[in-house]
Structures are given as structure tokens and as C-alpha cells.
Amino acid sequence: MKAGLLRFGMNLWSPFRANGIRVKRIAPDYREIEVELSLKWHNRNYIGTHFGGSLYAMTDPFYMLMLIHILGSEYVVSHQAGAIEYLKATREKVRARFAIDDAAIADIKAHTAGGRKYLPQMPVEVKNEAGEVVARVVHTLYIRKKQA
After folding, report:
1. Is 28:3 a contact under the CB 8 Å cutoff?
2. Minimal CA–CA distance to 123: which of 141, 108, 136?
3. What are the extents of the domains in the chain?
4. DSSP class of residue 115?
5. 24 forms bridges with which residues in the sheet?
């Protein structure tokens, strides 16, 4: 699937659309994605700041989607676990940038050689408009090369 079509579809997807999550950019090679979350009346918590579930949701699927497209059909890629650390409450628009470089791809291929599973931890920071980190999220993925 072309990156632009996936971006369009994700921006229509009800869990993102209802929470104010917007995919701003997906690189054509799927190695970089930018996402933002605007504060709305329906995604605020009790004290009027970003609801933690929305902060987590804005980061949830992206490393998995990126690696599915980068590694191709020879690999099984799924989301194994996730953890979030909330550092600063905010009412500002927040952003997350996901990037996967050649070294990370080589590491994954080395660890999955021969069909072994690999559980890499992929971190991402959620930042406010001033560039301050408001949350740190770590996603653990399950990756395995399919047997012939």
C-alpha cells in the first residue's frame, strides 16, 4: 500500500478521528511517520489536559506498521507490549515522530535469522509545541522471519 493512501485511511479511522489524532506524514519508504494530537473537549481528562489513553493511542500502531512495510511479507510483525511514562500534563497540541534507520533494520534481520523471534523495544517521545517531552512510550514488538 502506498504511504499516502495509508495516511488518508488512518486519518479517517474512527479511533484516531474521534480522539483528535492526525497522521501528518508517512515517508514513501515507511521509515518515518509524524503524528499529532490536538486537545478537544472529548479527549480531555478530568483536569482538562490530554487524556493518557489518547497519548498512548497516538503512538500505538506505528512501529508495527512501519516494519510490516519495510520488512515485507517474509516476516511476522506484531505488537507485543507497550508502556507509557507521563512526564508533563499539557493542553497544547502534541506530536510524535517515529523513525527507523538502516542500523535498526539490520539489527532486526540479524536477530531473526533462521526464524528466531525477536522482541525489540522501540521508544518514542511525545512532545508539546515547545519541544518538551510530555510522555515517553516504549513499544515491544514481536518479529520473526517466516519459515520457508
Report:
1. yes
2. 136
3. 3-145
4. G
5. none
